[in-house]
Amino acid sequence: MGIDVVVRGVRGVADLEYEVPMARMNHELAGVETFFIAADPALSHISSTLDTTVSQQGGVPGC
Fold first, then answer.
1. Tens of pLDDT along 19-28?
2. Cα–Cα distance measured from residue 3 to residue 7, given in angstroms and rounded to the nearest whole number
3. Cα 6 to chain center, whole Å?
4. Which pTM value belongs to this model?
């Protein structure tokens, strides 16, 4: 597909431990580099799972 770089956000060590093996495999198999961006610590509690759950339950009242 012509992809040279993948950009991934990481919230902490657990995210990085999950992402690094995938990044290595992408590099070995396809020559794709992975660029990691650290989350702002004040926002590191937010995840796509949390966002989806809140959205499915009608959002946050008053927002």
1. 999 999 999 9
2. 11
3. 11
4. 0.71
